[in-house]
Amino acid sequence: MGSTRTINLPEENGNVTWSDGTEGDEIIVSEPGIYTANVQNACGSFIYEYDLTLTDCSCTIYIPNAFTADSDNLNDVFYVAHDCDFVEYELFIFNRWGEVVFQSKDPDAFWQGDHQNGNHFVPLGVYNYLLKYSSKDIENRVAADKIYGSITIVR
């Protein structure tokens, strides 16, 4: 995991012993897992259990499955919505014959449904995409991934 987290008990009067033998109202942990605190005081014994899980939300990607490309200012372009710190990024869009009709290394680029080799628009229909990227996770490590899917152009 690489970093630490602190688990604090609510204010308790008594002696606190954690599952790893640590004593005190807090424990510093570096791995996900279940951590148990046993509190003993004049009223008895209480057990607190904490289940620490980590979710890497450092790179959320949303890719729509359709757009209109009809100049009505509603869903007119296709783009990859993200909150990622990309190290590398490459988006390919293919027609049904496997020809690349759009390609970009810019994560903020959008596609209007035009063909990259001319000044005409591609026909209505279904197009496949491949997004290859690498981004930094919450620990600043670089992780690579690929996303495949399809988009439908409707006019």
Describe the structure.
0% of the residues lie in helices and 50% in strands. It contains no helices and 14 strands. It has strands at 5-8, 15-18, 26-29, 33-41, 44-52, 61-62, 66-67, 78-79, 81-82, 86-94, 100-104, 110-111, 125-136, 142-153. It has a five-stranded mixed sheet, with no helix packed on it. A three-stranded antiparallel sheet has the order 2-4-5, with no helix packed on it. Strands 1-3 form a two-stranded antiparallel ribbon. A hairpin with a 5-residue loop joins strand 13 and strand 14.
Identify the notable features of this structure and list them briefly.
155 residues; 5-stranded mixed beta sheet; mainly beta; single chain
Q: Determine the structural class based on helices, strands and strand pairing.
A: mainly beta
Any idea how many domains?
2
Mean pLDDT score: 88
List the helices and strands in order: EEEEEEEEEEEEEE
Overall radius of gyration = 25 Å
Extract low-pLDDT stretches: none
Largest sheet, described in full? 5 strands, mixed
Text of the CATH class of the largest domain: Mainly Beta
- Helical stretch count? 0
